[in-house]
Amino acid sequence: MKMWILQHLLFILCTALSCVTDAAVIHVSGYEGSDVRVSCSYDQGYKTQEKYLCRNDCGYSDVLITTSQTKKNKYSIYDDKRTRKFTMTISDLQHKDAGKYWCGVTRTGKDIYTEVRVEIKPDSCCHSVSKVQSYDGGSVSISCPYESVDQNNLKYICRGNQPSTCLQQAVVTSDSKQTTQFTLTDDRKSQFTVTITNLTQKDSGSYLCGVHRNTGLDDFSAVELEVNVFSQQTSTMTPNNITVEPVTTQSTYMTSKPFRDVTLFTIFNYIRAAFLALLTLLFIMFIFVMVYRNKVRKLQGSEVSVMMLSSTEAVEQRTISPTYENPEYTAC
Predict the structure, then answer these.
(1) What is the separation, in whole angstroms, between the first and last Cα of the chain?
(2) In 240-326, where does DSSP find H-type helix?
(3) Nearest 5°: phi and psi at 234?
(4) What is the arithmetic mean of pLDDT over 68-93?
(5) CATH superfamily of 129-263
(6) Which Gene Ontology MF annotations are present (predicted)?
(7) Among 3, 156, 256, 272, which residue's beta carbon has the most beta carbons within 10 A?
(8) Does residue 8 sit in helix, strand or coil?
């Protein structure tokens, strides 16, 4: 007890003199309800020394666990002497577990401390979700963007919206690349695409695109898929393949092929049929008018010919008739 009091006084003194940490601050993040691991290294000469994890001023009551205990409450510790690194696990994370911690290595005089910052995030994703639709028996392609620094990192997709278990429950990854229903392709630049074939209504629901990060939490984007069943009115249509880039927690990209609505498609067919019928009717009317005009011209030509013939006969009669109408002239 006296030893811890002395150690506590030394800790406060070192804090005031800015000599507490002998290494850079370690940042770790975890999801609420899950676990987080904190690893701290030490020099060759401290393999046999006791190590511990503490909070606040690292007084006796602030020590959470030591290497002599292995496990205590929600904390566990393991000292790997081969790699000279001891690792603490904090289970069942709650918001109150967020904050500052200290990795401690005992030694004569002042212990060695390394500052640790723990961040707790809700085990859900995301602030924005892309909603996409397709039909039973069709397929859908989901494009997931990522940063250039993650080109060589593992990519995957899972069902649900819990980031903490997504990798363990992934339906396909960039390592496996293809399953019976899922195919993952990576352009190795800025996005990977997951294609889901032979869709059924059971495939409806939430999906998460995941990009594994070597440090910190993985990056996710969320998609909500709705698979509809064909009705009798739409049974003659072929399901459309929909390509969607789902929304990430940081930015949203959307490049999709047009989705044909069944009602609009039917209306378009009716309009097209009516238009063709109108064109046909106008063509028939045009032919009828041309034939009628031709007949009228012929009739008018016949009437003119008859009138000219009648006029000629009348003139001839007037010329001949005086010879027979004057009997006195004939008698002489």
Answers:
(1) 184
(2) 262-320, 322-325
(3) -110, 10
(4) 96
(5) Immunoglobulins (2.60.40.10)
(6) transmembrane signaling receptor activity
(7) 156
(8) helix
The pLDDT tens digits for 82-103 are 999 999 999 999 999 999 999 9
Domain ranges, ordered by start, for the chain = 2-121, 129-263
Fold agreement between 2-121 and 129-263: yes
pLDDT confidence of residue 158: 97
The bridge status of strand 140-145 relative to strand 129-135 is unpaired
Confidence of residue 30 (pLDDT cuts 50, 70, 90): very high
3-state secondary structure labels for all residues of 48-94: CCCEEEEECCCCHHHEEEECCCCEECCEEEEEECCCCEEEEEECCCC
| 192, 208 contact by CB (below 8 A) | no
Q: Which residues of 272-281 are buried (b: 16+ CB within 10 A; e: fewer)?
A: eeeeeeeeee
* Neighbouring C-beta atoms of residue 98, cutoff 10 Å: 15
Whether 55 contacts 99, CB under 8 Å? yes
2-121: CATH topology is Immunoglobulin-like (2.60.40)
CA dist 323 → 8, 118, 160, 318 (Å): 164, 143, 124, 10
Q: What is the CA radius of gyration of the chain?
A: 46
The tokens describing 230, both together, are: 């064909």
Task: Report the candidate in 221, 264, 220 with the shortest Cα–Cα distance to residue 240.
Answer: 264
C-alpha triplet 92, 94, 100: angle, nearest 5°: 110
Q: In whole numbers, what is the pLDDT of the chain averaged over residues? A: 81
If you ran DSSP here, which 8-state letter would residue 113 be given? E
Cα(77)–Cα(52) distance, rounded to whole angstroms? Answer: 8
